[in-house]
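yo

u said u wanted the structure for the complex thing, so here. seqs first:
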Amino acid sequence: VTAVVDNPGVTGKVMGTRVLRVEDPALLTGESRYTDDIVVPGALHVRIVRSSVAHARIVSIDTTAALAEPGVVAVVTGPPAVINAIVDALSHLGVTDITMPATPERVWATMQEAAVTQGDAR
Amino acid sequence: MRIAMTVNGRNEEHEVEPRTLLVNFLREACALTGTKVGCDTSSCGACTVLVAGESVKSCTMLAAQADGAAITTIEGLAGADGSLHPMQAAFQENHGLQCGFCTAGMVMASVSLIEEQPSPTERDVREGLEGNLCRCTGYHNIVKAVLAAADTARASR
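structre next:
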């Protein structure tokens, strides 16, 4: 991505020659596009709400106020997102759901059940 | 609320929320995305524009505060024929940019800097640009570019 310029007396040689980057004019005039500059019609914006304390156990998350805000389409809290990820990861075993809380033991049991079910089907 | 200002010589009048920041007015209402939002907290200077000729971090100013003002953004620097402004040319010539994200702010702050100090020393440039962060270049070539542009500006005077 470079263009050869200023080549006094060194005809045909690139090594040791000063070059100017060809991408610079767009970057210098504001024409280049970064992700945040791209307008996607109908795009939804995600806002991540982090814990207000450094170390704590989440007992419950009340999403009613957030959902009541105008323009809010969905509020995704940790548990549903984690459950979705686990179910997605195990879907090739035939897992379609997992009961809360998704402890390692429960995940293991769900995988075994799915495996047995698949075995029975054969 | 209705806000009107002259941006790069063009009249821009838009209905926006009162809390709209100048940078969002420029990027969203005027669709001038050359001005960047880097930190949103006026630390990085990526959003620097000229308000009545003075450099301002546009994420720190409400659009309402700029109502009626004349604004210059990075899009307004180059000539109508596309020729680079001497500061933009100096940045390219001296390799004062890599990824380009800080560049709009750097260039706008530098234009204002040499307007105020036509003969800056290297130290003046470093101090003048302390409010603009660059994660790529290590600043040396940016400083070289600004000093070179200052020389060019004085020579053409």
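Helices of chain B lie at 22-29, 86-93, 103-116, 122-128, 140-155. Chain B touches chain A at residues 27, 31-37, 73-75, 77-78, 84, 88, 91-93, 95, 97, 99-101, 103-104, 107 (CB under 8 Å).
cya
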